[in-house]
Specification:
This protein is an all-alpha fold and 156 residues long. It is 58% helix and 0% strand. It is built from 7 helices and no strands. The longest helix is centred in the N-terminal third of the chain and has 18 residues, at 35-52.
């Protein structure tokens, strides 16, 4: 039983474009991303955004879900951009993924921030006590989790 024509992806459509764009991403961390890496990231992000965007939706320009998808595919390269974290960092109104990525790159390059991130796993394991805890080892994922947790549970 084959695929019906309706369920066959369009070879030039957004799903195929995002598949091609992810293949062009260099194997690099955001920490070391230069201009060419940022452009490849932007091509992939835009392809994902086009693939998940619906012209019939109330907001045909979604950015959170594509950001989460990109971060899932390349956790060392793409930060999770959501309203809480972007508002906390003061970048929500920039409305530009590339500018956001530069802010996240500056954060993971900062020595004080890196030292604080390096202490997170030990502190989380201590807080967990006897409970099993699985943590991501990616510096960017730990930063994402710390920022999001702070925006949700941190001081008011």
């Amino acid at each position: 039983m084959g695929l019906s024509k309706a369920s066959t992806p369009n070879p030039g459509g957004p799903h195929c474009q995002s598949s091609h764009a992810v293949d062009k991403l260099p194997d690099r961390e955001l920490l070391m991303a230069d201009a060419s890496v940022l452009e490849a990231m932007y091509a992939f992000y835009n392809a994902v955004k086009a693939a998940v965007s619906s012209p019939n939706s109330k907001d045909p320009n979604p950015w959170v879900n594509p950001s989460k998808f990109c971060a899932r595919k390349r956790p060392d390269l793409f930060p999770v951009r959501d309203r809480n974290v972007c508002a906390h960092l003061g970048i929500l109104n920039l409305s530009d993924a590339r500018a956001d990525w530069l802010v996240f790159r500056a954060l993971v390059q900062d020595d004080d921030v890196r030292r604080a991130i390096d202490t997170l796993p030990e502190g989380a394991h201590q807080a967990a006590g006897e409970r099993q805890l699985a943590l991501d080892s990616s510096v960017l994922r730990l930063l994402d989790a710390a920022l999001w947790s702070y925006t949700v549970w941190g001081p008011a």
